[in-house]
Structure formats: structure tokens, C-alpha cells
Known about the structure:
Helix content is 39%, strand content 18%. It is α/β, with parallel strands linked by helices. The two termini are 32 Å apart.
Amino acid sequence: MTVATEHDQAVSTLRQAERLLLTTHENPDGDALGSLLAMHLMLAGLGKDSVMYMSPDEFPLPWEYRNWTLDGLVGAPPDDVEDRTIVFLDCGNIDRMPVDFLQREGLHIVNIDHHHDNTRFGSVNLVDPGASCTAEIVWRLGRELGAELTTPIAEALYTGLVTDTGRFMYESTGVEAHRMAGELIQAGVQPHKVYRRLFEDLPFSRLELLQRALATVQRHDHGAVTVAHLVKSDYAETGALETDSEGVIDHLRAVQGTAVAVLVRELLGEDREGLRKVSLRATDGRVDVSSIARAYGGGGHTQAAGFTTEAPYPQLVEELRRRVEEQLRP
Ligand code: AMP
Ligand code: MN
Ligand code: MN
């Protein structure tokens, strides 16, 4: 099915739906939260009964989003969940929302996303890998649905756009992304204010965490694989949160000679003992990091992907080096 046909299907499903439950992936990022809130506000503006669901475990949200008031958010399934149209936003794989009530058979799911490796778990799948962010798809849908582009909706969409395009710098940034930015600014977004909220006014602990991460950087294979490693004590001793590691990897990918940047961080919490989250970023066109992430049960985009593993650190680094090498020299 073409993206255009999928788009029409999603539009007619959303038009017909009266009661909806919207959700996104765990550990939500700017695109996840922005798409979720924008879609919710659009549907509510069209007179529909929409609720957003996120697990209470996601709170507090990362620092960047601390002031977001998510009116209409529920932390438990509403009684009528089976009668609601479920909308997944920015979630490539249903296992990225590990919540029983959403994994039940028989739900009517609209899956709206831009990950090329989306597993198409919905009844309706609008998957457009050409979109710079899920927010771009939501923006387009809003237009089709006749939703008014209010300033709060525009701000939510702009957040998804800015964060997922790396501030309009990644390869995914196209003409549409810039056109969308123009329209959102017309609708009342003040880019410098969004920028300040997202990227500045940070707690000092974040800088301290970054300092520790950078102190661990190791360059392998003449710098092709550049790795940083954060362990539990780094959080405990700086007072930083897990979400404060966001952005660390950008420093690694920016270095000359890096083909793949890797951030490995130990997960906190007793139930996650021994688990590590691995983030991958590729700057070399020959490498598709999403395929590496998939080998460990994760996924993502060609140039940005992630997974969680129990593999011990040294073994993990060796494996990643080998997998990158295989792609660089097939
Ligand atoms: P991150 O490294 O967490 O910033 O994630 C980079 C990209 O990889 C994002 O597009 C995520 O959606 C995707 N991603 C991260 N972790 C996973 C995972 N466990 N499974 C599937 N996709 C993931
Ligand atoms: Mn996301
Ligand atoms: Mn996204």
C-alpha cells in the first residue's frame, strides 16, 4: 500500500472515530510527546473524546518537558478502552509500549509513524519513512481533518520537528520540514522560546554527567567507532537523571573520523539490574545502525537507533565494532 493510500485510510478512520486513546513509545522523546499532544489537541478541537495514555513510570518527564501540562492524560486504561480507537504515535514496534492492556488482541489500532522498520502492528498503518518526524505526519493529518492550527498545537508539533531533525540538521530534514516550520511560526511559535526551553536553562547536573561521559570516550578502529559509557554511580554522584544523558551522543558523532557513535548507559532501578541501554548514531552512509539495533531486539532509523541488552560491556563493544566493520567493509 502506498503512503498516499495509507494516509487516506488513516484520515477516514480518524474522521469516523468518536472516542480515541492516543499513546506513544516508552521513554518518550520530543517527537513522541509533541505528536501525542498535538494529535490530542487537534482531535479534541474537532469535538472528539480523546485521552492520552502514558505509563506513570514515565514521570517525571525529561527536564526539557517539565512544564508541559498534559490535560487529558490518563495513567490507567479507561473502562471503555476496547471501544476506543487506539492511536500509536512515533512507535515503531508495539513492544516499545510494554503495557498489557495495549498489547491485547482485538484492539482497533491506528499506527502513525516514520520509522522505516515499523512492524506495522496496527489495523491501519500510516508509516512514512520519508517524514522527518511523526509530528510532520500529524501536521499533514491535521490539515486533512480540518483541525485548527492553534499556537499550543503548533508548539507541540515544532518540538517534535526540532528534536527529531537535530535542529534541522539531519539528513531527514527536507523541504517539507522547513515548510512546516514556516507554517508553525505563522501559527504563533516563537523559535527562540522553544529553543531555550529545550536546550538551555539546564540543571548543572546534566553538564556534570556530560563531563563524566566525555571522560570515558574511547575511539576504536582509528576512530570509526567512538564509545562513551555511563554507569550507575555517575547518576548517583551527580544527581543527574537517566534522561539527562540525552544529547551526550551528539558530541561523539560530531568528531572527525567517527562512523558510528555509541553511548552505553547502565539502567537504574532494581528491576533493571544488569541492563544497559545502547544508543547508536551513524554518520557514514555505508552504515545502517537500525540493522545493528535490530540484531539486539531494538530498532530505529538508519542513522539513529537503540536497544537494551544484558551483554556485558567489553563484549558488547567488541560485537559492535565487528558489526560496524562488517558494514564498512562488506
Ligand atoms: P535513542 O538512542 O534512544 O535516542 O533512540 C534513537 C532512535 O532509535 C529513535 O528513533 C528510537 O525510536 C529508536 N530506538 C531506541 N531504542 C529502541 C528500542 N529499544 N527499540 C526500537 N527502537 C528504538
Ligand atoms: Mn521517538
Ligand atoms: Mn520520531
